Amino acid sequence: MAAPGHDDQQTRRGRRLGIDVGSVRIGVAVCDPDGILATPVETVRRDTSGGSDVTRIAELAAEYEVVGVVIGLPKTLRNTDGVAVAAAREFGDALTTAIAPVLVEYVDERLTTVTAAQALRASGRSAKASRSVIDQAAAVAILQGWLDARR
Fold first, then answer.
1. Fewest CB within 10 angstroms: 43, 88, 101, 133, which?
2. What DSSP letter does each residue of 7-40 carry, written as one string?
3. Beta pairing partners, 17
4. pTM for this one?
5. Contacts of 101 (CB under 8 A, 6+ apart)
6. Residue 146 region by backbone torsions, left for phi larger than 0, else alpha for psi between -120 and 50, else beta
7. 6/97 Cα distance (integer angstroms)
8. 13-149, which class in CATH?
9. For the chain, first and last CA: distance in Å?
10. What is the spatial distance between Cα 88 and Cα 118, in angstroms, rounded to a whole number?
11. CB contact at 8 A, 61 and 70
12. pLDDT bracket for residue 132 (50, 70, 90)
């Protein structure tokens, strides 16, 4: 959901971050300036009390000179908001403050982590050994889906 008056984020050229907010880790992805391909960046440890996670992602936003951030909302299969959605929005609110005037937008990301885990298992990687990679792959799926929907 974009903020009023910020519809130009969808068409504006520039890099964007994709964020998969989990209870333990946050996957981060970035796209190229033309908005064609999302790639993994890193996995950030979740810090709900100290805010170091928001600080690190704000640093990444500055490093990549992003024009926008896309955060996945893990809605239920019945399209309802649960505890995870509230946590993602709370994180997004803190990030919005930290990186203003860069716009933060939310998108439905049902099953992206499950899909990413299945793809990694199919490639021969164990889920336990690949947890941080799964979070990055989920962030790539969130951002790539957002990019593809705008073409």
1. 101
2. GGGGT--S-EEEEEE-SSEEEEEEE-TTS--EEE
3. 30, 69
4. 0.84
5. none
6. alpha
7. 16
8. alpha beta
9. 18
10. 23
11. no
12. confident
In whole angstroms, give the CA distance from residue 87 to residue 31.
24
Helix then strand then coil, in percent of the chain rounded to 5, is 40, 20, 35
One-character DSSP codes across 113-138 = HHHHHHHHHHTT--TTTTHHHHHHHH
Q: How many CB atoms lie within 10 A of CB 79?
A: 8
Positive or negative CA dihedral for 140, 63, 11, 7?
A: positive
The region of weakest confidence among 18-32, 74-88, 114-128 is 114-128
Tokens of 113: 């982590």
Spans of all domains in the chain: 13-149
Q: Which tokens hold the place of 115?
A: 């899909």
Distance CA 76, CA 73 (A): 9
- Per-residue pLDDT for 1 more than 50? no
Per the listing, tokens 């996945």 go with: 72
Whether residue 37 contacts residue 31, with contact meaning beta carbons closer than 8 Å, is answered with yes
